[in-house]
Amino acid sequence: MIISNRRITDLTSEVIAQLVAGIGPLWHERHQAKLASRPRKRAVGGGPTHRLVFVDRLLATLVHLRHAATHDVLACWFGVDRSTITRAVNEVRPLLAERGCTVSTDVRLRTLAEVIDHLGSSGTTGIIDGTEIRVRRPAVGRKDRNGPISRR
């Protein structure tokens, strides 16, 4: 369902397949290295199996990044615990960042002109997210109550 509906991730199934083929082996390699780095308490192959396979981890991360869906909502959607989604997002985001799919947290751009200047000077491609965010209207009696809220 997620892969077939482009509105959910804004990516075609071909792009998602390329991401799976590109970062899936990296995730598996890192996961195996993490398991091998600590002493085993169970036999190889023992313990619970993943209830959230890599493709679902990738899709949950893409939906989280695209729509800012909370981990609780994604956990209900994928039928796992919230901590599983948190772990999945924390594992997959660095892999996406290594491929150039990242959100710059150290850059604060306030106008479209600043965005264009930044992208032009850094030589990167940007995607502008126009997601609406609910904001609270100022309290009754404040002078700016009737002004536009979107500019704050």
Summary, kept brief:
The protein is mainly α and 152 residues long.
Please characterize this protein's 3D structure:
This protein is mainly alpha-helical and 152 residues long. The protein has a domain at 6-98. It is 51% helix and 0% strand. It is built from 6 helices and no strands. It has helices at residues 6-9, 13-36, 54-67, 71-78, 82-98, 112-122. The protein is extended and about 70 Å long. The model has no long low-confidence stretch (mean pLDDT 80).
Keywords:
single chain; 152 residues; mainly alpha; 6 helices; 0% strand; extended
- What pattern of helices and strands is seen along the backbone? HHHHHH
Question: What share of residues is helical?
Answer: 40-55%
Number of strands: 0
Amino- and carboxy-terminal Cα gap: 37 Å
- Which residue ranges are poorly predicted, with pLDDT under 50 across at least 5 consecutive positions? none
* Protein structure class: mainly alpha
Global morphology = extended
Individual helix count: 6
Radius of gyration: 20 Å
Largest sheet: none
How much of the sequence lies in strands comes to: under 5%
Mean pLDDT over the full residue set:
80
Blueprint (SSEs and pairs):
Layout: H1 6-9, H2 13-36, H3 54-67, H4 71-78, H5 82-98, H6 112-122
Helix pairs in contact: 2-3, 2-5, 3-5, 4-5
